[in-house]
Write a structure and sequence with these properties.
Blueprint lengths: L26 E3 L9 E11 L6 E11 L3 E3 L1 H9 L8 H16 L3 E8 L8 E5 L22
Antiparallel strand pairs: 1-4, 2-3, 3-5, 5-6
Length: 152
């Protein structure tokens, strides 16, 4: 995993990784490591592949975290998230893998990932993962995704 500004993917041509396991996530120093605050990334058009049918699955992924010493670099995060497009995995696996991978890289004070998946077979499957309780007194907004998203 890259940790120095010289090795970041930012500002350089980069291709989409073949799989989430091959994706490189970059981190950069947090300019405010002494302050608890929430950083949020929302992927409103997340796509993966059903490992059984091969059909595309669509969801909204919301990542909230309280940084410690590190921030995730956004270009590397975009490439990581895009690498799921041809990856066969269940909703639960995608959501939890994203959380575990980011948490291992960043060592945040707190992190949660909400996977809000569009219906498959008429049933939406939403998956939630977090590292533990958020820091006391933290402003933590709702993730803003309704629990059921009908067509139209």
């Amino acid at each position: 995993m890259a940790h120095q500004h010289e090795s970041l993917q930012l500002g350089k041509p980069a291709s989409v990784p073949a799989s989430p396991e091959e994706a490189v996530l970059d981190r950069v120093p947090n300019p405010h490591p002494d302050t608890d605050y929430v950083a949020r990334f929302t992927c409103p058009e997340f796509t993966s592949i059903c490992p059984v049918t091969g059909q595309p699955d669509f969801g909204i992924i919301v990542i909230d975290y309280v940084p410690g010493a590190w921030l995730v670099e956004s270009k590397s995060l975009k490439l990581f998230m895009f690498s799921f497009r041809n990856h066969g995995a269940f909703h639960e696996d995608c959501t939890v893998y994203i959380g575990k991978r980011l948490s291992a890289l960043l060592e945040p004070r707190w992190m949660r990932v909400g996977g809000y998946w569009f219906p498959r077979g008429g049933i939406p499957i939403d998956v939630f993962w977090q590292t533990g309780a958020p820091p006391a007194g933290l402003f933590l907004p709702d993730q803003g995704v309704p629990p059921y998203r009908p067509r139209g």
